């Protein structure tokens, strides 16, 4: 079965039909840049452009880079325009896509669900935490495979700062940090999350998962196993489609 998965990020809006049996993209993904400011209206236009690129008319699962409650209402918007807060995202996207059924889920939660099912978290019991390092830091917390949604561990305070402002992938780029310097910040962040949750496994997702060998060797002193995400940057798209399929069931 195929469902369209679409991942809304701080820099890009990307999507593709997803093969739910394989947990992989059924076609090469299409990406448009996230508009700035990333308002509901501008983002919804980008979403329509990506979906129309494939001529897709079926159900669409979307991710959003903020807290999503009740499968629809946006509660936070750290890296997109603040006018998203309290927006009924499901109604907005459904209307913009000409009435297709849509579902909306937090981006890191979607990536986590995909990794637990098809990737690095497969068959893993106990406490598993997926962290995505991108424009912000997203988190997905699993206990024996069950998701605790909207955990927002990227906003933990670390040395008086919002953790994602110091340790996201964007912080590395903006401050032109070496991989070693950035890894030092990530190590402190992981140690803090470990102190709070004692997970068995950390899965590192986001674009940096492709470059794990550049920073994982510098991360020492964390007891939990640390592995890169296997679906890499497609985890959000696959998870968005999985969420849509689960919701329809
Ligand atoms: C948001 C999270 C999101 C993460 C990654 C954070 O700023 O608060 O909801 O998962 O960025 O996009």
From TrEMBL:
The keyword Kinase applies. Pfam families: ROK (PF00480). It comes from the Bacteria. SUPFAM superfamilies: Actin-like ATPase domain. Gene3D superfamilies: 3.30.420.40. One of its GO terms (molecular function) is kinase activity. CDD domains: ASKHA_NBD_ROK_PPGK. InterPro entries: ATPase_NBD, ROK. Keywords: Kinase, Transferase. Belongs to the ROK (NagC/XylR) family. PANTHER family: POLYPHOSPHATE GLUCOKINASE, ROK (REPRESSOR, ORF, KINASE) FAMILY. This is Polyphosphate glucokinase. It comes from Streptomyces zinciresistens K42. The lineage of its organism: Bacteria, Bacillati, Actinomycetota, Actinomycetes, Kitasatosporales.
């Amino acid at each position: 079965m195929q469902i369209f998965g679409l991942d809304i990020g701080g820099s890009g809006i990307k999507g593709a039909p997803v093969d739910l049996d394989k947990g992989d993209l059924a076609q090469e993904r299409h990406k448009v840049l996230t508009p700035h400011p990333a308002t509901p209206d501008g983002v919804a236009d980008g979403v329509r452009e990506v979906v129309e690129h494939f001529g897709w008319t079926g159900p669409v699962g979307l991710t959003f880079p903020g807290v999503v409650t009740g499968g629809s209402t946006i509660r936070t918007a750290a890296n997109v325009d603040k006018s998203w807060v309290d927006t009924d995202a499901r109604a907005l996207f459904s209307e913009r896509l000409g009435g297709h059924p849509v579902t909306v889920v937090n981006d890191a939660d979607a990536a986590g669900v995909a990794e637990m099912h098809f990737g690095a978290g497969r068959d893993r019991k106990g406490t598993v935490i997926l962290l995505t390092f991108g424009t912000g830091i997203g988190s997905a917390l699993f206990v024996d495979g069950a998701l605790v949604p909207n955990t927002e561990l990227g906003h933990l305070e670390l040395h008086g700062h919002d953790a994602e402002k110091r340790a996201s992938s964007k912080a590395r780029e903006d401050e032109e940090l070496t991989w070693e310097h950035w890894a030092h910040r990530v190590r402190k962040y992981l140690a803090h999350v470990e102190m709070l949750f004692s997970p068995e496994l950390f899965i590192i997702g986001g674009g940096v998962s492709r470059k794990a060998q550049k920073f994982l060797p510098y991360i020492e002193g964390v007891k939990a196993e640390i592995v890169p995400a296997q679906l890499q940057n497609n985890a959000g798209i696959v998870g968005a489609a999985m969420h849509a399929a689960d919701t329809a069931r």
